Amino acid sequence: IYNAGPDWGVHVGDALGVPDPLVTHHQHQHQGQTFSFLGIRVSSPLSLVVNGRRPPGSALAPPCLALSNPRAPP
Fold first, then answer.
1. Which of 2, 33, 49, 72 could hold 17 in an S-S bridge, CB 3.0 to 4.6 Å?
2. Whole-prediction pTM value?
3. Residue ranges of the domains in the chain?
């Protein structure tokens, strides 16, 4: 689950409710093999319902700022 906090996740057997999912079909070819699967995307892990409850705020990964300046001198 993208953007999930490091200490949160779902387990095999959990009931998972996915409101307003965006379903996309992925099809990729690599070295003569075709890989085809569905992907389900939601806006945030906090929008899920796991075993009848919303996840706690800690389920969302903290923001991380990454900067780069390719023109900066070494």
1. 49
2. 0.66
3. 1-6+19-49
